[in-house]
Amino acid sequence: MLERFKVPKQDRVYVQQDRIRQATHDIFRHVGVDEQGAKASTDVLIVNDLRGVESHGVSNGLRRYVSEYNAGTLNGAPSFDIEHETATTARVNANNALGTHVGPWAMELAIEKAAKSGMGAVSVHSSGHLAGCGYYAMMAAEVDMVGHCMTAGGANQTVPTWGAKPVMGTNPIAYAAPAGEMPPFLFDVATTQVANNKIGLSRRVGASILPGWIADLEGKPIMEEVPAPDTGDYYLLHIGGTRENGSHKGFGFALMNEIICNGFTGLGSGPVGGNKHGGHFFMAYQVEAFTDLQKFKQDMDDLLRYIAAVPPADGFERVVYAGMLEAEEEERRTRDGIPYHREVVEWFESYCAEAGIDCDLR
Amino acid sequence: MLERFKVPKQDRVYVQQDRIRQATHDIFRHVGVDEQGAKASTDVLIVNDLRGVESHGVSNGLRRYVSEYNAGTLNGAPSFDIEHETATTARVNANNALGTHVGPWAMELAIEKAAKSGMGAVSVHSSGHLAGCGYYAMMAAEVDMVGHCMTAGGANQTVPTWGAKPVMGTNPIAYAAPAGEMPPFLFDVATTQVANNKIGLSRRVGASILPGWIADLEGKPIMEEVPAPDTGDYYLLHIGGTRENGSHKGFGFALMNEIICNGFTGLGSGPVGGNKHGGHFFMAYQVEAFTDLQKFKQDMDDLLRYIAAVPPADGFERVVYAGMLEAEEEERRTRDGIPYHREVVEWFESYCAEAGIDCDLR
């Protein structure tokens, strides 16, 4: 993440992962989530926080999930119904499970299918927020497969190239691939200039929005640096920002995501159907179905080392690939704790006090 | 394509597709390509030209392929050896076939596997230029599957985010998906701001290069509008251009492409190994392995119609999705002929005259 999104130094409270894990787990249980779901969702969110992906950790997510469970829009004890299945594929009705609840289960199913058949893919509908896609792709990399995950969550946020009305959500795409000695490749991006969560983060940390990141409500890209606007006062732009700078490429990746995530679930088009929660897609490629695994991992090491050794351009410190900083951050935060905004820690403490949860974060 | 890349009106010679097809086929045969290869390559190049993707048609490609066949770096009568195979996957040694020669065969194999097993994927090494990836992805859409194709052709052209030395090529990615009544989704983009071929096209048509499209030889993004530089005087930038504008996203998509195209072929890293011709990857998803095909196509129509009906932002005529303009262009050019630069037509005529090929383009 760019420096501007990070919690300012004076507002940081470092929390050890076991403490925030326990509190998060207990809060999920308190709002009626079953034990498997509480474990799964806690791991997704805290691993995101450990990797420095705080836009998809507990800070932005947990409050929202709690209120969705309390409102009954999320189901804390869902069954995962396989509606259609082949040796390589499955389509699943998650019965309003949180995405972080069904996601690890669905990716595991894709991995099992890939282990038997070379490739496996699972589409999931009727499920809430996935909290990014990187965690799930990495599940495959951790068992020496290439992982791929997408979600078409949240329609009507992003204007298409040349358009004045929003159509799709941030439609993120993730891939992960294992290496031998180098940190694995872990790529997880919104198909917009920035994720919507980052606009929220910017408001919290007082960061500004750069030219070409968002559009006004007439679809015109805002080409000056501006303070983070309120929800409802802007639309997102696809990767590229403007047509001249390639926004049709970001738009096309987003549409591919929409077609696979919503089309392959039978859910139908998110924007047209007004689906607040789009479908998810989880996929695993077994490396050995194509080539020798040890050779693949050796090639990965050679490639990733080569990239990390590229001399930086003037004004920059070094060259990194997707997953490298995340691996370094995970090591650092596992040791030193996760730097949450004090306001987040205070929310945990006050929630736990009211709910009668024994919560010791500091 | 942007208007700036099109052949200027006064330089256009309209050629009917059957005439340019015959001449292209005969030239391939003349340089020793077998009948299957001549047919396959001709169809790829002319369909690209019909769809308005002239950066990957005969104008930029054919001269280069002819000289590669004449130099013996391309094999006109290759066998395609399956080195490893499962029900869903295959790895193929193309024995120095041109990409447009082996590509249709490899995508057909992926489609056959998907028809039997839900998904199919084929990685190909030891093969030349693929001429874009869209043609192959569309082969799947034409039989009601979702198609995906990538190639890691050409290392050492593109600087990674913050880097001063080029690592990867333009690493294009394509997806296609069928609809019912609407033109199919057909998305085919380089993971750079512009494809290298477009720099060549710009030189030919006298178009300039926009800010953030390329970097100087120290890796610094050129942020002014400049004339198209000569080969060797610039590096390409990944989608986004600069880190603030999201170039790490384009870089990540390129690296994913590199890992799958070169890793899954056993070819090893392109930049490290100095592979001039990277691997290709062809994949098909059977829609019915996930959901009902008719429902999927109806959902596609609903979604694509919705996008095409989005009101344009101020200053723009209409909103389009990837594949829409290509379908309109294909209809127009099938009727009116393909507008080639007169210099291209003159090359055909002079080549045919020297080779004794009966060629009637006008």
Entry keywords:
362 residues; alpha+beta; three-stranded mixed β-sheet; globular; seven-stranded mixed β-sheet; Ribosomal Protein S8, Chain: A, domain 1; homodimer
Multimer state: homodimer
User: Which structural class do the helices and strands of chain A define?
Assistant: alpha+beta
Order of helices and strands of chain A: EHHHEEHEHEEEEHEEEEHHEHHEH
Number of helices of chain A: 11
What share of residues of chain A is helical? 40-55%
Number of strands of chain A: 14
Q: Architecture of chain A in CATH?
A: 2-Layer Sandwich
Termini separation of chain A comes to: 26 Å
**Spatial order of the strands in the main sheet of chain A?**
2-3-4-13-5-7-8
**Major beta sheet summary of chain A:** 7 strands, mixed
Radius of gyration of chain A: 20 Å
What is the CATH class of chain A?
Answer: Alpha Beta
Shape of chain A: globular
Going by CATH, the homologous superfamily of chain A would be Malate/L-lactate/L-sulpholactate dehydrogenase, NADPH binding domain
Averaged pLDDT of chain A, please? 94
SS strand fraction of chain A: 15-25%
Compose a concise summary of this entry.
Two copies of one chain form a homodimer. Chain A has eleven helices and 14 strands.
Textual characterization of the structure:
2 copies of one chain form a homodimer. In chain A, a hairpin with a 7-residue loop joins strand 7 (173-177) and strand 8. Chain A is built from 11 helices and 14 strands. The first copy, chain A, has helices spanning 17-30, 35-50, 58-71, 99-117, 134-141, 196-205, 247-263, 270-273, 293-308, 324-336, 342-355; strands at 12-15, 81-85, 89-97, 119-127, 145-151, 158-159, 173-177, 185-189, 208-209, 214-215, 226-227, 235-237, 280-286, 338-341. The first copy, chain A, has 362 residues and is α+β, with helices and mostly antiparallel strands. In chain A, the strands form 4 sheets. In chain A, strands 2-3-4-13-5-7-8 form a 7-stranded mixed β-sheet, with helices on both faces. In chain A, strands 6-12-10 form a 3-stranded mixed β-sheet, with no helix packed on it. A two-stranded antiparallel sheet of chain A has the order 1-14. In chain A, helix 1 (17-30) runs antiparallel to helix 2 (35-50), helix 2 (35-50) crosses helix 4 (99-117) and helix 4 (99-117) runs parallel beside helix 5. Chain A has one domain (3-291, 304-355): Ribosomal Protein S8, Chain: A, domain 1 (2-Layer Sandwich). At the A-B interface, strand 4, strand 8, helix 7 and helix 9 of A face strand 4, strand 8, helix 7 and helix 9 of B.
